[in-house]
Write a structure and sequence with these properties.
The complex is a heterodimer of chains A (489) and B (431). The two termini of chain A are 64 Å apart. Chain A has 489 residues and is α+β, with helices and mostly antiparallel strands. Chain A contains eleven helices and 21 strands. In chain A, strands 4, 5, 6, 7, 8, 9, 10, 13 and 18 form a nine-stranded antiparallel β-sheet that branches. With 431 residues, chain B is mainly α. Classes of the chains: A alpha+beta (489), B mainly alpha (431).
Chain lengths: 489, 431
Amino acid sequence: MAAKLWSLLDKIWLSLGSVKVTFVIFIALLLLSIPGTLFMQENISNIDPGLQYDFAFWQFGQWIQLFRAYHSFWYVGLIVLLAVNLIICSYERWPSMWKLAFAKPVALSPQAIERKEKSQVYEWELVQEPKSLRNDFEKWASKHWIKYKVLKDSPDEWQVGWHKHRLARIANYAVHTSLLMIFAGAIWSGLYGFEGLLNIPEGSAVDTFLMFKEGGSAGLERPPGGRGTPNERMMDFRLEAAHFNVEFYKDFPGRPKEFATRLNAIDRGTGEIIASQVIRVNQPLAVGKYTFYQASYGELGDYKLDFRIIRKSSLKGEGKGAFFEDQNFFSAKLGQVQNFPKYGASFVPVKFAQDLQGHGPAIQVQTLKNDQLVGEPYWVLKNDPVYDFGRDSEWALVLDEYKPLYFTGLQVAYDPGAPIYWLGCIGMLLGTFYALFFQHKKFHFIVRKGKVILTGSTHRLPYSFESELKKLSQSIEEDVLGKGAIHVT
Amino acid sequence: MLHEWSVNSLNASAFIYLASMFVLFIGAIRNIQTSKWVCVGKALAALAFSAHTFGLLSRWYIGGIERPPWTNLYESLIFFAWGAAVFLMLALFKWRVTLVGVFLTPFIFLLMGMSVMTPNKLVEPLIPALQSYWNRIHVVFGMLSYGAIMSGASLAFLQLIKNKYSIKKIGAMLSLLSVMMVLMIAGKEFYKSGRFEMARTVEQVLPDGSTVHTKDIYRDYEGGPVITRTEEVPAGSIPVFFSLACFLSAALVYLSKRKEKDGHKLFGLGIFSLFVLVAWIFWAIRHNEHLTLQSNPYLLMAIITTFFFDLFLVLAVWKKTSFMDSLPSAERLDELSYKNLLFAFPAQMLLLITGAIWAYYSWGRSWGWDPKETWAFITWVGMLIYLHGKLLMKWKANLLSVVFIGILALMIFAFLGVNLLLSGLHSYGSA
């Protein structure tokens, strides 16, 4: 029974490690990557797929995890299968690969040379003394950094051999190990990291953010008292957007040139600022394990309005020197009640218009009496400061400046697996270059029966190898054999 | 002034590439060794390449060193076409496989023609997310990889023809490729309602903040704000349906045990319907004052390119013997296409990795399964299949060539299909 079980396991092991399975996995990987690009994926910044598709399809999609395709059981299962296949394949092949890469050079028999392709064999007549030839060869080899081994040293034959880029044969192991490292890093990040977003109106502070994925809590706690949505998580500190600024290109209205936020991280207990930095796109702020990225911004729909209130009767002087003696500067936001008992004025700015019937920016203001709205609302025009002086009142309003208020859009992430997968990426790149562009090459230099032979072979694809061998033969012809060398083939 | 020169030379290069395609083809059919047409074709290609390069460099000069000319769709079309053109130059002047020119120029013309029809050609300054070193590096690898894939797949196609690969299978592959192109051109409206529309549907934001879907008939980019008129436009579903049906049935006939002649007839009908489609589009533009060539810049180009591509392959199969004689050995073609893949594979890997690094510094996530990056990954998996097939399984050249053409299809979708279609498919089913 046990023997049967073992043989069954053995069979599974071998079939999981077969190259055919590798190709099945590749094709499956290619095909199963597609659905996630066709159907909307669950994401906190997207609309819920449930609203996008009709109910029956949505239910089906939920069942096969179509809307979280890249974290679904079938996709993750496939990646696991790929990893298992890779590990078994590598394990099974390792001894033979190692042997091939690090085998000592073996002397070639005359028959073995005859079997070789003609383009890989160079032959000359031996004209000089065998001993001086050896000396010249030694000099040539040390000049070209070639470490050869003497394979045969008898009176009628002298044969040496050397290898080049042995590691190219096992470079694929570096690539595949790196791939596994990338998987490991991604899993680590998925288990212990988090990603989320938070929008902070300029001037205010928050202590929670919205996590992208529901579920993976990454050790973060929900806000106390069940505050907020299920995706909301507490941060270890309060985060204040002290200041936000967006700069636009002059000739391209609406196209932002740069936007930046002054972020302060404030200790929740002591109120101390523990970190402070201006962040921009591509310039994040790191506080402990949290890193904050400037991702977007938006208008709050509110404005900072710089007004002046002026007593109309206080005009002094004439002509260019005229001025109002009694005036007061103040800043307001829409909906903020302003009381000026000195002028007997009480009012609230209620509405902003970017362009009021061709007169430019304007603010609609409503008068108050005992905190009740009275009378008709009126407009204060930015481009026409004396417009409000026509209103029947002792005082008038002038709008000096207005500035839209923004919220800053931040992304927050903690990615503990990053060093592992970046290392994996580097390993994979270097390994790929080595595996693809270097070949394990073997060379033999033989002096036998009045002939000198140079031959070589490579472990794969002899495309550029032949020209390399030709160059080597030319170099040998020049430096070792001398001018009298007679080419046979 | 320089901007005008730059745009004009880029526009001109598109048509010079087209001319060189014709001339090279005539030369190849006559006699590739001695025909003067070949010399003229090569000279035209070199001229187009110089105009192209000049346009690109002058654009870079206008934008300043910090703003390389590959930051929006218009520029990336030109830049990726330039990548393919570099390989065209290699094929014509280094590898001396003149016929690659015939297959590669339709692709270059596709991209350049799309760029000609793109309405907004201004050198716009960069938004903050694009002001990154990684942007510059990332796109260069994309250009290199996709250029190498286009040229490698052309070589693979020639290898198939040279290696006496069955005409039926070549026909089937071409039919399927044409089906893919037509489906991609047809657009999201076609899948929703079976209506093939001349003008793109765009989302327009009204002054009160709400959004409506309108037909983007005419957009005036040069003079300030965007003017959009909503108009009922003609739809041409019949030629699209017809060409899809022809190419699909041609593919089925080629794949079945029927005679290949029947397939040829259907394939010819498909080409004819593409021709009808192009003619209909021009007719519609002439008779509808609201339609311009820019109404849907990518549609017309893709149709014309599919048309040329199919037509040339029909001629190639028809003039088989002179084609065969003008090609290098199948082994040499296989070797060259493999070398293109050897170039494309690490470049694609660097494309993915540099993109991940850029995303990591911008958003704190290195991989987000966004459709564009997923399709680039899918293309890379296609190359993995090729490489493992070649190095591990020692697949034969014909099979490898077929895989390479598959990689080309994946790449076309990753580069153009994702942008043209997928945003549309997201709203599929919402109506």
